[in-house]
Amino acid sequence: YLRTMAEHLLHHQHLQLQNRDLEQFAQGERAGGDGEHHRHNFVQLYYNEAGAGDGGGFAWTHYRHRGIDRVAVNLKIATESLRMRIDPTVRIGIVLLYHIRVLSGVTGRVLAEFGPGNGLDALALAGTGRWLEKGKDYWVLEAFGNDPQLFLPEIPCAGETELCVELLLAEMGFADFIEGQASTADSGGIPRRIRSGCRAILKKLFK
Predict the structure, then answer these.
(1) What does the alpha-carbon distance between residue 179 and residue 185 come to, in Å, rounded to a whole number?
(2) 68-76 and 57-64 as β-strands: parallel, antiparallel, unpaired?
(3) C-alpha of 66 from chain center
(4) What angle do CA 146, 203, 193 make, to 5 degrees?
(5) Quick check: 130 pLDDT over 50?
(6) Under 8 Å between Cβ of 143 and 97
(7) What are the residues facing 43 on neighbouring strands?
(8) 26 burial class (0-12, 13-18, 19+ CB within 10 angstroms)?
(9) Alpha helices in 48-191 (DSSP H)
(10) 114: burial class by Cβ within 10 Å (0-12, 13-18, 19+)?
(11) What is the pTM of this model?
(12) What percent of the chain has pLDDT over 70?
């Protein structure tokens, strides 16, 4: 029992050390600076190799706030399968998720792909996230807190030593989302009920 508890404690401390840069970034966000780095967001990726018990790995990368961005996280592995959790944002707001792909970091071969009409419904959304709309080109994720979590099915990766996890997404605030979709509501854009829901959220945040 004591050995198990010690292993859990050491693993937790290891993740805390890995998260130091993330905390520094978060402090900058809370300070409300105007520099370019203050407009970035980031993806966090937690992964667990088959047979690794409770231990696991952690990786992260920045991406731009606003605009569609292709985000890539590279991993070194030694396993036949991998379980992953992806946190696509650390801000309250909206994420447009176009696809997630897991590729061989050596050959570029696609090992798994999740997109609208192509496996995105196999992901489990938890934490402070919920789906607002499931469209043809992207799904709209509302982050009502700073910890939305996407759990991927187990990924087979026998023979691979490096992986690239790629996300195509766009992140924005509620007001930006409403403004950006206002002109497309009558021509196949986001339904009015979604914008109404966002307005209700804005009222709660800024009352």
Answers:
(1) 11
(2) unpaired
(3) 15
(4) 90
(5) yes
(6) no
(7) 61
(8) middle
(9) 174-181
(10) buried
(11) 0.73
(12) 65
Structure-block tokens of residue 108? 């570029």
DSSP of 138-167, one letter per residue?
Answer: -EEEEEEEEEEEEEPPPEE-TT-SEEEEEE
What percent of the residues of the chain are helix, what percent strand, and what percent coil, each to the nearest 5?
Answer: 30, 45, 25
**Residue 126: which pLDDT band, with cuts at 50, 70 and 90?**
very high
Token representation of residue 176:
């930006």
pLDDT at 37: 47
Confidence of residue 194 (pLDDT cuts 50, 70, 90): low
pLDDT digit string, tens, across residues 16-29: 554 554 555 455 54
C-alpha pair distances (Å), 136 with each of 96, 123, 159: 12, 16, 34
Element (H, E) at 5: helix 2-18
pLDDT tens-digit profile of 51-98? Answer: 655 567 999 998 987 789 999 999 999 889 999 999 999 988 999 999
- Location of structure tokens 């809370």: 30
Q: Give residue 187's pLDDT band: very low, low, confident or very high (50, 70, 90).
A: very low
Name the nearest CA neighbour of 163 among 50, 73, 49, 32.
Answer: 73
